[in-house]
Amino acid sequence: MEIFLDTANIDEIKRFASIGIINGVTTNPALIAKEGKNFRDVVNEICSIIDGPVSAEVISKDFKNMIEEARKISKIHKNIVVKIPATEDGYKALSIVAKEGIKTNFTIVYTANQALLAAKLGATYVSPFIGRLDANSTSGNNLIQEMATIYKNYNFNTKILAASMRNVIYVKEAALAGAHTATIPPDVLAQMMNNELTNVALDGFLKLWYELDESKREYFN
Ligand code: G3P
Asked: How far is CA 122 from the centre of its chain?
């Protein structure tokens, strides 16, 4: 499973890139705005840190401007994946820019039908918003399973990018359901790495180790 970091925060991206645990980054207009910096500068800096897909989103709602923005954004760096929202104009923009070879992330997806149409139009990634679906009393995990079945039935190359991963259980369930990728906020990714029982066991082992006579620990000195 590909793991993307869902943030535009440079310190967090450096933190997880240095561990070697992330394959890419996703942003959206809200995440970029949160950093209070120029869009192009932020995207460029992210691309200089991580050698993998970096999603950056169009901000227009009409297809003509979406297409213009997609072309401009895609030129920032070879690893750019242009995020296009799942609106009628979004499908129109997707069908054109996908044919031009621009990598795309069709986003804010809530139904299997939206995901089917995006795959037909050649989306590179499709992002179902799992946490937001669950918050609206609909199973996000069912949607991933449906998408996985549909993409398999028709041999679509489009990847399922599980988004709005608001807790660690969502990530595990997305992996079990067959998502190719998950984009995960920094706090959730940190939780995935850690377990209190690991720390308890480790402290117990090292306590006994340091009770051993120092001469018998010479290998490590
Ligand atoms: O890129 C942000 C997307 O993953 C939405 O996350 O938690 O705002 O629903 P959230």
From this structure: 19
Cβ of residue 57 lying under 6 Å from some atom of ligand 1: no
Q: What is the spatial distance between Cα 116 and Cα 154, in angstroms, rounded to a whole number?
A: 10
Neighbours of 56 (CB within 10 A): 28
CATH H superfamily, domain 2-195: Aldolase class I (3.20.20.70)
Distance (angstroms) between ligand 1 centre and the Cα of 73 equals 21
> Which residue is closest in CA terms to ligand 1's atom 5?
164
Q: Which residue is closest in CA terms to ligand 1's atom 9?
A: 164
* Domain ranges for the chain: 2-195
Rounded-to-integer distance, Cα 33 and Cα 27, Å: 10
Please tell me the pTM assigned to this model: 0.95
Q: Ligand 1 in contact with 132 (CB < 6 A)?
A: yes
- Ligand 1 pocket test, pick from 12, 108, 132 with the greatest ligand atom count within 8 Å of Cβ, gives 132
pLDDT in tens, 59-115: 999 999 999 999 999 999 999 999 999 999 999 999 999 999 999 999 999 999 999
